């Protein structure tokens, strides 16, 4: 058994990641600015999305976007400073 299944939008696009969430994935990878491993040879573009676009894709798939840390604890951010802490840490 796996405690978490990630929908890796970088390799499979955001629309596919939305379907993967609906099929049982419980995590969608975060905002990545550059990921050369999946970039096609000779392609000048890179994979990038904003927090807002990622959250919108999650909502459109029927879920609530929650930021997490590396051990899957919910992250809480200060609205004014942007400082964060893991809930329950």
Keywords:
89 residues, alpha+beta, two-stranded parallel sheet, globular
Structural notes for this entry:
By secondary structure, the protein is of the alpha+beta class. The chain has one domain. The chain has helices spanning 9-12, 14-22, 51-60; strands at residues 6-7, 27-28, 75-77, 84-86. It has a two-stranded parallel ribbon with strand order 1-2. A two-stranded antiparallel ribbon has the order 3-4.
Quick structural overview:
Helices cover 26% and strands 11% of the residues.
Topology:
Layout: E1 6-7, H1 9-12, H2 14-22, E2 27-28, H3 51-60, E3 75-77, E4 84-86
Parallel strand pairs: 1-2
Antiparallel strand pairs: 3-4
Which regions have little confidence, pLDDT < 50, spanning 5+ residues?
none
Rough shape? globular
Describe the biggest sheet? 2 strands, parallel
Rg estimate, integer Å? 14 Å
SS summary, helix count: 3
- Percentage of residues in helical conformation: 25-40%
Strand order of the largest sheet: 1-2
In percent, how much strand structure appears in the residues? 5-15%
Distance between the termini: 25 Å
Written as H for each helix and E for each strand, in order along the chain, the element string is EHHEHEE
The total of beta strands comes to 4
Averaging pLDDT over every residue, what do you get? 82
SSE-based structural type: alpha+beta
Number of domains: 1
């Amino acid at each position: 058994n796996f405690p978490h299944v990630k929908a890796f939008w970088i390799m499979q696009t955001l629309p596919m990641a939305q379907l993967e969430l609906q099929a049982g994935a419980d995590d969608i990878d975060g905002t990545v600015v550059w990921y050369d491993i999946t970039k096609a040879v000779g392609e000048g573009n890179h994979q990038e999305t904003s927090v807002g676009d990622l959250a919108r894709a999650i909502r459109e798939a029927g879920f609530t976007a929650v930021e997490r840390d590396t051990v899957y604890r919910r992250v809480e951010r200060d609205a004014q400073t942007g400082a964060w802490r893991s809930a329950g840490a």
